[in-house]
Amino acid sequence: MSNNNIRVRFAPSPTGPLHIGGVRTALYNYLFARKNGGKCILRVEDTDQTRFVPGAEAYIQESFEWCGITFDESVSKGGPFGPYKQSERKDIYKQYADQLFASGHAYLAFDTPEELTAVRQAFEAEKKTFTYNAEERKKLRNSLTLAESEVKELLNNNTPFVVRFKMPEDETIVMNDLIRDRVEVSTKVLDDKILFKSDGMPTYHLANVVDDHLMEISHVIRGEEWLPSLPLHVMLYKAFGWQSPEFAHLPLLLKPDGNGKLSKRDGDRLGFPVFPQQWTDPKTSEVSRGYREDGYFPDAFINMLALLGWNPGDDRELFNMEELTEAFSIERIGKSGSKFDLEKAKWFNHQYLIKRSNESLAELLLPIAVEKGVLVEPEQLAEAVGLVKERATFVTDLWDQLDFFFVRPESFDAKAVKKRWKAASYDQMTELKNLLADLDDFSAEQTESATKAWIEEQEYGMGAVMNAFRLLIVGALKGPHLFDIIALIGQEETLERLDNGLHELGRKEVQK
Ligand code: GLU
Asked: What class does CATH assign to 357-394?
């Protein structure tokens, strides 16, 4: 379905790395656009030059590339509503500030920072907080209180000023939010926000509303932290005489215990990333971990994020991007915050790991093997992967689960030796070695049936024999089905490991 009227945007400010909450907002925008045949736009909101952080914009772009969220229009891609970076649209905003001033919805404020500090301090002395609102503006130096001639003179003298929105004194603003339904607020509790700064740049509010209008945005889907800005935005649309888009404010991503917004500090404290990729702070050189570097698959990461706040209406949990697109709807976004759950994040990664083919996992493992200096055949590696992947969460775990396929044990787990290498083990393993040496067919089925028949015939303890056997082959009591292991490493290697282990462990002294 193609719907040219649906246009959504993700509008990050490049002030640092993108929090996973931001990635989730972008994801919901992306899914909503895809689902409805609309367009998803990436707009860079960089009008606050004091908060600009080098590298942040590139980081944001790379993160989206990694996790598979694409945009129809953006700084790098261009599009019919460009430029898509607000600092490149600087000249556009002034006329809109002028328009609001001319229509009486905004005014010029000449108060110097020193004057405002003095007022603030006077309020604080009386244990009150100052807000530049309908009441206070009457006492301050602005185009509402000064004579027209005075204003003209100030302007002629190039006196710095800001443009403020003139909030009506006593009105109820009714807003509609697709997630929260109807929200009402009285203008009495609102202040006269700055729209245009003395440095010639618009503030977030003006630039955001003007751009959403000019870019024909139909739905604003953004984080709940922007809900307090909604009354002003709604009033701005009204003041301009523009139709406002629909709004959906997404509930927060919460700390694992549910107490407040998920922050980088929680991640550091509890051992998980809150950023999609690793980030190095350009000022402090502090490195923050990322999902990509921690070994998460992008599709697992996306699946996990999608379900932190949205649900499909049934128990299903595994969705790839296409399935998410198909199933997504704003109606199924929850009203309350979602707790981040590390175990669940790992569970998703495990699911995506076991879904991947053994061959593709082996490809990812090969560099690790090379790094460890171990020579492996890709086919053999893939086979070993198939035997252990059920036990792994990350590709790096896989290596720990299967290194013994390729590396003969150099040492034997002391605890296991103490417990499982028994007085009879040496002779039993020697017999087993001879038995296995005589087999022509070394398939798992054959070695298993021959070994078990021998154990039964000799009336040995199954557990005792198998534990001692595993100890010699693996070096520890871990790993998948033992007969699968020896089938993969082959007869020669099996016999050598038995020989080597018998030599290393020797005959256990019987304690008197
Ligand atoms: N630039 C704002 C941010 O950094 C955008 C908020 C919005 O989507 O309106 O999140």
From this structure: mainly alpha
Q: For the chain, how many helices (H) and strands (E)?
A: 20, 13
Delimit the domains of the chain by residue range. 3-75+206-253, 91-196, 264-355, 357-394, 408-505
Gap from CA of 84 to ligand 1 centroid (Å): 14
Architecture per CATH, domain 91-196, reads as Alpha-Beta Complex (3.90)
Distance CA 68, CA 133 (A): 45
> CB count, 10 Å around CB of 365?
22
Assigned superfamily of 264-355: Glutamyl-trna Synthetase; Domain 2 (1.10.1160.10)
Q: What angle, 0 to 180 degrees and rounded to 10, lies between the N-to-C axes of helices 425-437 and 462-474?
A: 70
50-82: pLDDT as tens digits: 888 999 999 999 999 999 999 999 999 999 999
3-75+206-253: CATH number: 3.40.50.620
Report the predicted TM-score, pTM, of the whole model to 2 decimal places: 0.92
* Strand 162-165 versus strand 279-280 pairing type: unpaired
Q: Which of 85, 188, 261, 264 is catalytic?
A: 264
What confidence tens digit (pLDDT) does each residue in 372-386 have? 999 999 999 999 999
DSSP 3-state of 395: helix
- pLDDT for 209 beyond 90: yes
- 264 has catalytic annotation: yes
In ligand 1, the atom with minimum distance to the C-alpha of 9 is 8
Q: Report whether pLDDT(102) > 80.
A: yes
Ligand 1 first shell, C-beta below 6 A? 11-13, 45, 204, 208, 222, 226
Fold classification of 408-505 (topology level): Arc Repressor Mutant, subunit A (1.10.10)
Return the ligand 1 atom nearest residue 212 CA.
Answer: 9
